[in-house]
Amino acid sequence: MNSMNWMEKWAQLRGEWWIIDGQAQFADADTGELGHDAYVIQSIIAEHSDEIMEALGLNSQEDVFDYQLFDPTIVDKEKLHLLGFSDEEITGLKYPREYGMEKLGWKRVAGPNIETQTLSSADLKDIANGLYDAYDEEATNAEFNLEVRGTKSLYQAVPFAVIETEDPMRVREYGLKYASTRNWYKQAQEAQEWDLNCPECGGKLRLRSGDWGPYYSCENRCGVTHGAFKSGKPRGVPGDLETIALRKAAHEKFDQLWKMNSHIPNARTKAYEWLARKMNCPISECHMAKFNKEQLRRVIGISNWALEQYKKREEEKKTQLELDL
Ligand SMILES: [Zn+2]
Fold it and tell me: What is the distance between the alpha carbons of residues 29 and 35, in angstroms, rounded to a whole number?
């Protein structure tokens, strides 16, 4: 195959997936609900949903568990133990991808790149089924890069037909040819710094790595920081210090709205849909990290107004009760 075809074919294979028992589960945070990490975290939480609901004062028989109610990554270890989380799971919350592959046996797919812990015949069967599930007929004409984490081996441009043989020996032929090439997968995973200027002081925003992934902060340490995706892509638009303060204030006000309605399933998503209508913007643009100062002031105003409406309604209910008496 010449390199043009190669690129063209790769271009068709998009999106990020987990392969779970031969089924492809879409896990692309940029376009979907949950990314690879979030998917694993949710599956770890699901094991303990009864205990968590009990701790939150919810009834597991009647109430619907809303995963957004509980962020285990900010809960301390002892509390997680009390909720039944094992040490292994707690480590998994911090390193979800590794946990997904090592402990759950899931395969990670990003476009034509596949990561798996081991390369047995059963793994290949799982991968072939998952790729077919994710890419349909297109998978059968494509070639894939396989990284085996357990042995730190890399197999490049493996045709689907070879994966489908479920024979690890056949796949191994594709490793030797490319033994000297750089680890493409690692390269893909390494966060790339974007060229961003600090809106406060004009300095460069530098990509740094935090406990929970990469983020930007100003080279002049003027106080500006900004969130980033694993790839290094900034989340939304960096703001100056006033914008950052407004974003924090807008979040605090707006979050109250969905948190007080957290008994409703998907309260947070619904609240964002409501806000997008009020702000007259598409839901994909409805993020505090994307709003400018004027929009953020509007979010604060709208949220305050809605909170007051709630309060009034609650008071009216009370008055009603008193009258009924
Ligand atoms: Zn700065």
Answer: 4
- Which protein residues have a CB closer than 5 Å to ligand 1 (ion)? 198, 200-201, 203, 218, 220, 222, 224
Name residue 143's beta-bridge partners. Answer: 159
**What six digits make up the tokens of 246?**
């407004």
Rounded to whole angstroms, how far apart are CA atoms 221 and 203?
9
Domain locations in the chain?
A: 3-188, 191-239, 240-325
pLDDT score, position 54: 83
- What average pLDDT is seen over the chain? 85
- What's the pLDDT at 309? 92
The 10 Å CB-count burial string (b at 16+, else e) for 51-70 is ebbeeeebeeeeeebbbebb
Tokens at residue 85, please?
């989380």
Torsion, Cα 66 72 78 80, to 10 degrees, reads: 50
State the distance from the centre of ligand 1 to the C-alpha of 204, rounded, in angstroms: 7
∠ Cα 106 109 272 (to 5°): 95
pLDDT number for residue 324: 63
User: How does DSSP assign 269-299, residue by residue?
Assistant: HHHHHHHHHHHTS-GGG--GGG--HHHHHHH
Amino acid 262: pLDDT: 75
Tokens of 198: 């600090």
Q: How far apart are the C-alpha atoms of 131 and 22, rounded to whole Å?
A: 8
